[in-house]
Design goal:
The protein is of the alpha+beta class. The chain contains 5 helices and 6 strands. The relative contact order is 0.19.
């Protein structure tokens, strides 16, 4: 109990102590671009050249593999992300979001982001079951 009392508590989509406002803007813009943009370029400029993405089905894939395997196949299915919680400290962020697909389905994920010089250097995505748009669209609810 004493340990949890020492941890900061944040309300919905707020950031923590030690926040770099530029990093907060980068994180929020990244998620917004998934539903607001058909062009890869605005996303590309938010990611470092050596960006990596990890998930239960991806093991530190490169930016180009992420574009091909994730952006090209998934972004067109996304209606939007609701950022439920955003915890930012320095160059690290944890984001819990609800993603809504264009056909009315939804799923929740948690992602850990590492930032460097105002850009996203790495994302580790934690999901289960239907944790990405094409899978959520196949799930019968």
């Amino acid at each position: 109990m004493a340990t949890s009392a020492a941890l900061p508590t944040f309300s919905s989509a707020e950031a923590g102590t030690g926040l770099n406002r530029g990093n907060e803007e980068t994180v929020r813009k990244y998620y917004a671009l998934w539903s607001q943009q058909n062009d890869w370029h605005p996303v590309d400029v938010l990611l470092t050249d050596d960006f990596t993405f990890t998930s239960p089905v991806d093991d530190r894939i490169s930016k180009s593999a992420f574009k091909t395997g994730c952006w090209d196949t998934q972004h067109g299915l996304i209606a939007g992300h609701e950022l439920d919680r955003v915890f930012l400290v320095g160059d690290q962020a944890f984001v819990r979001y609800t993603c809504r697909t264009k056909n009315g389905k939804s799923f929740r994920n948690v992602e850990y982001l590492q930032l460097k010089d105002g850009k996203i250097e790495a994302i580790e995505c934690y999901f289960g079951g239907s944790g990405y748009p094409s899978a959520a669209n196949r799930v019968q609810k």
